[in-house]
Structures are given as C-alpha cells and as structure tokens.
Amino acid sequence: ITYPMPDPFLVIATQNPIEYEGTFALPEAQLDRFMIRLRLGYPQPIEEIVILDEQKRIHPLEDLDEVLGVEELREMQASVREIYVDPTVSDYIVRLVDATRHHPDVYLGASPRGSIALYRSGQALAGLLGRDYVIPDDIKALAEPTLAHRLIIKTSSSIHDVQSGQVVREIVAATAIDGIHPTGTGGPTELRRSEVGAPSTKGA
User: Which terminal residue of the chain, N or C, has fewer Cβ atoms less than 10 Å from its own Cβ?
Assistant: First the structure.
C-alpha cells in the first residue's frame, strides 16, 4: 500500500551507540536512503555552559518562532536545484564514489544514491554559502557525511579497526582535482590544487 506523504517531507533518525539492547541496526539498503549521517559527539565546554544558561528558566523550544512558510521552503528547494554543477565537478563526484567501490578495505561501495546525495548536498551547501555554482571544496566537506554510512567494510579490515569515515577521507585525499572548472571550461575561476585545500607553494 502506498501512502502519500506531505510536501515537503523530512525524516530525521537518531542512533545512540550505547543503547543496543532491544534495537537493531538498519539494513544497508535502508541506510543508503538517508542523505547524510552526522556524528554529534559531546559539546565543547563553552557550548555546554550556553546550554545550561539557555535552559535556566524555560526550554528554548518554547520560544522557537517560525522562520519561513511552506511555500517559501518549496521555492528554496527548487532554487537549490538550479545551482550550477559543472561537468568537471560531476566527474569529480563520480570518481570519489567509484573509488569507494574499488578500495581494498571495502566489501560494498556507495551506490548511485551516494553520487546523487553528494551532488544535491553540494548544491545546497553552495547556496547556503551564497554561491550559484559548486566547487570541489563543497564536495570535499560533504563526502564523509554523505558516503561513509553507505560503505560496508570487509570483516578482515574491521578487525583492524578500519572505519568507513577513514576510508572516505583517504579517497578524498587521493583523488585529483586538477582540471576542474566550477564555472565552465576555461573560465576565470579555474581551480588548481594549491587553491583547494592543498598546501600553498607561495614563498617556497
């Protein structure tokens, strides 16, 4: 039976790593349908002090105001789809995802859903940063949260504590960005390795 869902529709799931009794890990096929996985960890001490102060008298949710309407949200979602992704950036995304399928520690790499998630989230990040085109740094920043939960690490590698996030970081570090033109082939904003996350050679 198919049930219509409201538009927009969003699923947020939480996982507590110390509460395994009576719960079951999601199958890989279901994990693959989550766009991003984030690890929150503990807050920094100063952040925890702010949490205490904000909850001194009331819970912050009690004063939470609506910041935009549904129609405005739909318009924003549509505008994100219009953010330019150059073919060289798309190629970079595919090379990253394909590398997860051939890594020696990975039993099963990311599916095309991983490529789509990285593409769409790259558009969203570029928009949030005020850009109308995606750059390699956007993809680098999002590679681990969009891909790591989709990988199945080989048992032999898991025994040696190889983690999926570590694998993604290795792939990002090893994948070349030379020749990427975020605003079009031969455009004035052509990025070179020294301009995107690599140590600069100026003054060397």
Answer: N
Torsion on CA atoms 96, 97, 100, 101, rounded to nearest 10? -130
Q: Is the CB of residue 79 less than 8 Å from the CB of residue 178?
A: no
Q: Are 126 and 147 in contact (CB under 8 A)?
A: no
Backbone angles phi, psi at 84, to 5 degrees: -70, 130
Tell me the three state secondary structure of residue 153.
strand
pTM for the whole structure: 0.81
3-state helix, strand, coil in the chain (%, to 5): 45, 5, 50
pLDDT digits (tens, 9 = 90+) for 93-117: 999 999 999 999 999 999 999 999 9
The band of 202, judged by pLDDT with boundaries at 50, 70 and 90, is very low
| Listed residue (167, 137, 158, 165) closest to 38, CA to CA | 165
Residues 6+ apart with CB under 8 A from 201: 194
Residues linked to residue 108 through DSSP beta bridges, in sequence order: 152
The residue whose two tokens read 């105001």 is 65
- Measure Cα distances from 96 to 50, 91, 153, 187 in Å: 38, 9, 16, 23
Nearest to 196 by CA among 58, 59, 88: 88
Quick one: 170 exposed, middle or buried, by C-beta within 10 A (0-12, 13-18, 19+)? middle
